[in-house]
């Protein structure tokens, strides 16, 4: 019997129905959802990319400036400010701008002064791939920053599907010296009215500092920065209450600046006679209002972008599911099964089944736990599985409450593909009855460097494949050897020799597409 495991905190089911077919550039929205879910849930241990570690604890600085900590840098504050500066230049009426990583091309503008843009992009580059844009990385960055800084754990619904811009957007981020009318007009164009602008600014200025290195006219200390409140590493209403009560840091440097031209926060806060600030002074109201405004900011995207439904951490999940074919023509499906659990004892074995055209297979079971991890939503345990299939005709692998589609008519065989220090030969298998006269190609989605931004750009490269034999009912194909990546953007852990993270691959026979595969077997040298 399959007894589905459930836990109280991790919502059990992802609803794919309405969005299962949504694609952008040949990538399934489901793959995007599962990729961002992975960074959100797999914080430590097996299968972790360390994304949340960048803002753990909240006061952490993971950027690349050698003297960053002395300069008062804090990664969580950088990540929150990043979303604001990327999105506030949106024009809702025109359907342009929003969270689209265009900020990467804008780091040298005076309105974007500071280390935050390149620090953030350099940290997030390794987790950009065809499944996860930089813009989605940036959105996740805000959500997890608030969690590690003490905000409500599940406060902001997270969606996937943002698309990266390939050039700079318009300028217009308000500065300390910007007058009130101009500031309100800029926020209004991005969809925020006066009281929302006041609230959003107070929400953002709950974290981080004004830095001497960026605003020497405002901050007099020769090093470091001055917080907007006494708790710059706690996402809380202190900034509001210290302002209203005249305690602590009085609302921070943009309230108290010696030159009144620089008092942009004060101009905003008193523009409605402190009514919005007073309404925000209760902690619970502050959290609710801020979450709601941050959510709207995260979901401000160019009109062509279709975001996914809100994502829930998955109790059961498949990781790196791939197919292979033996020299006898027997197809196998393998991968890992992840279970996310909190208080309930983790299961000892994982039953799974395969669905074929003839029905559901007998129950198979994986008994080999291969790793464990932990994170915001609980603990994880991983099992490996590998089963031969009845092929052709196997359509899914099923466990817990999830169903993973399998396409055994045409599939990449990562285990047989060759990666000789970045020179990649892609191999695939196709049902011989389908081959006909169509052309067989492999498409590689490669994160590479681009001019003017540290954010990687995904380029898809199509390469020809030729058949090199048959096994059973299948014809085997191989591409020529192709060298991808290189480019070598400066410094930074994980930056490596290319622009970003892992390569995603699929095979095409005319119009018939395999599922895409993201495998470290295709990583660059
Ligand atoms: C009129 C509106 C705003 C102005 C003029 C403004 C201006 C500034 C300035 C001058 C700094 C200091 C930056 C540095 O020295 O590194 C700052 C920091 C910050 N701002 Fe704003 N801001 C505004 C609204 C917002 C909003 C709406 C958010 C987020 C929703 C936000 C989030 C932040 C954060 C998190 C920091 C701290 C950054 C760090 O410590 O690295 N700001 N802001
Ligand atoms: C490759 O990228 C181009 C845009 O540069 C897009 O039009 C095309 O559909 C992509 N091809 C595949 C196979 O995804
Ligand atoms: C701004 O929008 C909020 C809803 O978020 C509304 O309650 C408020 O009345 C609006 N304020 C102004 C000044 O239009
Ligand atoms: C708003 O609050 C600030 C800080 O407490 C105070 O200095 C100011 O006089 C108040 N302004 C109005 C119009 O209430
Ligand atoms: C205050 O700032 C404004 C705008 O930057 C500048 O024009 C003015 O000279 C400054 N005043 C003083 C006393 O520094
Ligand atoms: C799974 O087993 C089959 C043989 O049944 C083998 O061809 C395939 O390479 C194995 N997959 C993995 C990931 O080891
Ligand atoms: C950030 O990196 C980009 C790309 O390397 C570079 O052009 C830009 O000057 C850098 N910005 C800052 C402020 O260092």
Textual characterization of the structure:
Its EC number is 1.11.1.-. Residues 75-345 form the Plant heme peroxidase family profile domain. Residues 1-21 form the signal peptide. The protein is an alpha+beta fold and 525 residues long. The chain folds into three domains: 13-298, Peroxidase, domain 1 (Orthogonal Bundle), CATH 1.10.520.10; 316-405; 410-522, Immunoglobulin-like, CATH 2.60.40. The protein is 22% helix and 26% strand. It is built from twelve helices and 25 strands. The protein has helices at residues 29-41, 75-87, 116-124, 134-148, 180-189, 194-204, 238-245, 253-256, 264-269, 275-279, 283-298, 432-435; strands at residues 23-24, 27-28, 44-45, 209-211, 225-227, 316-325, 331-341, 350-356, 359-360, 364-366, 369-375, 378-388, 394-399, 402-405, 410-412, 418-420, 423-425, 427-431, 440-450, 453-471, 474-479, 482-483, 504-509, 512-513, 517-518. The strands form six sheets. Strands 15, 18, 19, 20, 21, 23, 24 and 25 form an eight-stranded antiparallel beta sheet that branches. Helix 6 (194-204) packs across helix 11 (283-298). One 2-acetamido-2-deoxy-beta-D-glucopyranose binds next to loops.
């Amino acid at each position: 019997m399959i007894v589905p495991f459930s836990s109280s905190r991790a919502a059990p089911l992802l609803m794919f129905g309405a969005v299962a077919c949504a694609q952008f550039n040949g990538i399934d929205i489901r793959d995007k959802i599962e990729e961002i879910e992975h960074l959100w849930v797999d914080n430590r241990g097996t299968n972790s990319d360390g994304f949340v570690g960048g803002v753990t604890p909240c006061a952490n600085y993971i950027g690349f400036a050698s003297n960053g900590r002395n300069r008062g840098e804090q990664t969580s504050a950088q990540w929150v400010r990043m979303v604001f500066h990327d999105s506030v230049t949106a024009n809702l009426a025109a359907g342009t701008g929003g969270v689209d990583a265009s900020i990467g091309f804008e780091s040298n503008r005076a309105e974007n002064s500071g280390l935050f843009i390149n620090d953030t992009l350099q940290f997030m580059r390794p987790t950009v791939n065809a499944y996860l844009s930089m813009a989605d990385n940036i959105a996740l960055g805000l959500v997890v920053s608030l969690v590690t800084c003490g905000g409500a754990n599940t406060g902001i619904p997270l969606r996937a599907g943002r698309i990266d811009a390939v050039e700079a957007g318009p300028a217009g981020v308000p500065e300390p010296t910007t007058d009130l009318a101009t500031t309100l007009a800029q926020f209004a164009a991005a969809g925020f009215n006066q009281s929302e602008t006041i609230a959003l600014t107070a929400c953002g200025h709950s974290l981080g500092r004004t830095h001497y290195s960026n605003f020497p006219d405002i901050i007099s200390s020769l090093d470091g920065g001055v917080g907007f409140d006494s708790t710059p590493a706690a996402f809380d209403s202190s900034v509001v209450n210290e302002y209203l009560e005249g305690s602590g840091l009085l609302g921070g440097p943009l309230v108290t600046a010696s030159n009144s031209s620089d008092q942009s926060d004060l101009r905003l806060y008193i523009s409605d006679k402190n009514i919005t600030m007073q309404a925000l002074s209760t902690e619970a109201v502050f959290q609710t209002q801020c979450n709601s405004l941050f959510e709207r900011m995260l979901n401000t995207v160019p009109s062509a972008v279709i975001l996914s439904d809100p994502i829930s951490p998955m109790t059961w999940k498949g990781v790196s599911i791939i197919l292979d074919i033996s020299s006898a023509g027997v197809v196998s499906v393998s991968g890992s099964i992840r279970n996310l659990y909190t208080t309930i004892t983790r299961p000892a074995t994982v039953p799974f089944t395969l669905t074929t055209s003839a029905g559901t297979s007998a129950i198979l079971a994986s008994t080999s736990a291969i790793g464990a991890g932990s994170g915001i939503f609980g603990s994880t345990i991983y099992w490996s599985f590998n089963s031969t299939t009845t092929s052709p005709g196997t359509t899914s692998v099923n466990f817990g409450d999830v169903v993973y589609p399998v396409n055994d008519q045409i599939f990449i065989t990562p285990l047989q593909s060759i990666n000789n220090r970045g020179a990649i030969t892609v191999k695939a298998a196709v049902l011989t009855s389908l081959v006909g006269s169509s052309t067989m190609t492999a498409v590689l989605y490669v994160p590479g460097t681009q001019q003017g931004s540290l954010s990687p750009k995904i380029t898809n490269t199509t390469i020809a494949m030729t058949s090199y034999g048959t096994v059973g009912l299948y014809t085997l194909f191989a591409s020529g050897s192709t060298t991808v990546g290189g480019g070598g953007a400066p410094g930074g852990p994980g930056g490596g020799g290319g622009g970003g993270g892992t390569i995603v691959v699929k095979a095409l026979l005319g119009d018939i597409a395999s599922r895409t595969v993201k495998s470290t077997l295709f990583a660059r040298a």
